[in-house]
Amino acid sequence: MKKLNVLLVCGSGASSGFMAANIRKAASAKGMELKITARGESEIENYIDEIDALMVGPHLAYILDEVEEFVGDAPVKVILMKPDYYATLDGEKALEHLLEEMK
Q1: Taking Cα atoms as reference points, which of 32, 10, 3, 2 lies closest to residue 89?
Q2: 3-class secondary-structure state, position 11
Q3: pLDDT tens string 71-97
Q4: Total domain count for the chain?
Q5: What is the residue range of 67's domain?
Q6: Rg, Å, the chain Cα set
Q7: Are the beta carbons of 5 and 50 closer than 8 angstroms?
Q8: Of 35, 36, 69, 96, which is least packed with CB atoms within 10 Å of its CB?
Q9: Distance between CA atoms of 47 and 54, rounded to whole angstroms?
Q10: Domain with 78 in it: what CATH number?
Q11: pTM of the full predicted structure?
């Protein structure tokens, strides 16, 4: 699998920053290369051309239609993170979800 470039977004980028760090740790433990960046939802447009996947915090489900417009025809997989692992910042479960969606 090629190195994935992933953008995580939440409201301000704070909680997604912790989640990104935990996903990095989980990926490293599995010997995977993964570039994961955490930003606030207002910055999505700036990264669309650089990413393979966009993971959106579960509390931002209401912006998915807007996100799909940003993505347009770009080959970006949009993934709504699940509340169970997001609430606990479980990087392993988030990584599993990401990999399943990227199949």
Answers
A1: 10
A2: coil
A3: 999 999 999 999 999 999 999 999 999
A4: 1
A5: 4-102
A6: 12
A7: yes
A8: 69
A9: 9
A10: 3.40.50.2300
A11: 0.93
